[in-house]
């Protein structure tokens, strides 16, 4: 019995597990032989319990403040957790309620969304209509200032809008007809401007060249020795390609091949003739009038060259009259030479201008739109052939007068 009691005490002192202690007590009580042993064991248990109770009270007294703080903290945490759970529960309920309400209002919300898109589209159309109503005035201003590329862009865009999204707007019928008529006729203005720069602007600085050249330092206007016109080169020789290639013509073509014509609203458009002709070609391309432009160039080429011949002849005659020379006398060969030199200079400038135009036209042809339209261009050889024809006319009309003078 004493041995069993010792084993129990050692088990109680070593074991830290309450379940193990309980099992040890049950085992000890079960192995007791009589009631006295059980009473003895009970007394020991009561004594141990009282000791534990006293130790617990002492620990509580010693750590009362910490224990109170821990209990309060625990209570606060518990309250917060409970409050958070309640809030989360409320949020879940609200979300479920919103989901249900949104599901019920889905069709109405979709209808309002579609109406919003429609109103936005209507506002955009109203803004576009207000902008298009101002196109005639702005177009007139651009045409007056010769900003043709901007005018063409604005006109083409306005007509596309009037014949597209705004086609059903009845109040724009008159404006649609007006702008459509302008679009059909504006290319005529561009072609006329192109010809003015090809034949007039390009030769405008050559007016006094021969006059200054033929006057000596003392202003002597005595006639030069007579020139045998029959000794002049043939027209074919005069039209050698090198005769009409100004310095930089090839580089200009290469430059135009890599340069896109642009229009600066702050600069006078005619300040640079080459760029201005590029702007005109680009405007004609936007109007899809390149075939008409090429046709007009070919049809008007010889008449324009003849006009240059006529103006040059008048110019030489006026200069001779100012110098007091008689056109029917021995001065005729020298005047013919002056005329041919002036024609060479002017035709050279015209050929160079055509090379610039052809470079811009080539850009249009190689573009996808140009390839689809099947645009066919004229060639520099066509210009040379027409110049040769006009030179033959000039030479032929002068030779009879030379024979009559003899």
TrEMBL record:
Residues 205-269 are annotated as: Disordered. Keywords: Exocytosis, Protein transport, Transport. GO terms for cellular component: exocyst; growth cone membrane; synapse. Residues 269-368 form the Exocyst complex component Sec8 middle helical bundle domain. Residues 255-269 have a biased composition (Basic and acidic residues). It comes from the Eukaryota. Residues 43-141 form the Exocyst complex component Sec8 N-terminal domain. GO terms for biological process: chemical synaptic transmission; Golgi to plasma membrane transport; protein targeting to membrane; protein transport; vesicle docking involved in exocytosis; vesicle tethering involved in exocytosis. Residues 215-253 have a biased composition (Polar residues). InterPro entries: Sec8/EXOC4 (IPR039682), Sec8_exocyst_N (IPR007191), Sec8_M (IPR048630). Component of the exocyst complex involved in the docking of exocytic vesicles with fusion sites on the plasma membrane. Belongs to the SEC8 family. This is Exocyst complex component Sec8.
């Amino acid at each position: 019995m004493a041995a069993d009691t010792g084993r129990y005490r050692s088990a109680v002192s070593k074991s830290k597990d309450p379940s193990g202690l309980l099992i040890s007590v049950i085992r000890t009580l079960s192995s007791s032989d009589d009631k006295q042993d059980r009473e003895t064991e009970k007394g020991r248990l009561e004594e141990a319990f009282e000791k534990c109770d006293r130790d617990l009270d002492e620990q509580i007294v010693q750590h009362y403040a910490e224990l109170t703080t821990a209990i309060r903290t625990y209570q606060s945490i518990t309250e917060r957790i409970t409050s958070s759970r309640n809030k989360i529960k409320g949020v879940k309920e609200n979300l479920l309620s919103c989901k249900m309400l949104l599901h019920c209002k889905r069709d109405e919300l979709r209808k309002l969304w579609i109406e919003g898109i429609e109103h936005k589209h209507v506002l955009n159309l109203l803004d576009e209509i207000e902008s298009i109503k101002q196109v005639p005035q702005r177009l007139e201003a651009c045409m007056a200032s010769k900003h043709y590329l901007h005018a063409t862009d604005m006109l083409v865009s306005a007509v596309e809008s009037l014949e597209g999204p705004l086609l059903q707007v009845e109040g724009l019928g008159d404006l649609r007809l007006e702008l459509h008529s302008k679009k059909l006729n504006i290319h005529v203005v561009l072609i006329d401007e192109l010809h003015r720069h090809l034949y007039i602007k390009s030769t405008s600085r050559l007016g006094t060249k021969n006059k200054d050249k033929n006057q000596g330092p003392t202003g002597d206007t005595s006639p030069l020795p007579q020139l045998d016109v029959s000794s002049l080169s043939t027209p074919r020789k005069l039209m050698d390609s090198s005769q009409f290639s100004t310095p930089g013509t090839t580089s200009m073509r290469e430059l135009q091949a890599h340069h896109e014509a642009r229009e600066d609203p702050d600069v006078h458009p005619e300040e640079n003739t080459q760029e201005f002709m590029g702007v005109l070609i680009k405007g004609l391309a936007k109007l899809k009038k390149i075939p008409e432009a090429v046709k007009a160039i070919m049809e008007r080429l010889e008449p324009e060259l003849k006009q240059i011949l006529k103006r040059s002849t008048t110019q030489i005659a006026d200069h001779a009259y100012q110098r007091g020379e008689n056109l029917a006398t021995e001065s005729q060969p020298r005047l013919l030479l002056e005329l041919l030199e002036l024609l060479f200079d002017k035709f050279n400038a015209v050929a160079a201008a055509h090379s610039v135009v052809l470079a811009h036209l080539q850009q249009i042809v190689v573009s996808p739109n140009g390839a689809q339209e099947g645009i066919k261009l004229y060639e520099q050889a066509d210009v040379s052939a027409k110049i040769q024809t006009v030179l033959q006319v000039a030479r032929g009309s002068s030779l009879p007068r030379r024979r009559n003078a003899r």
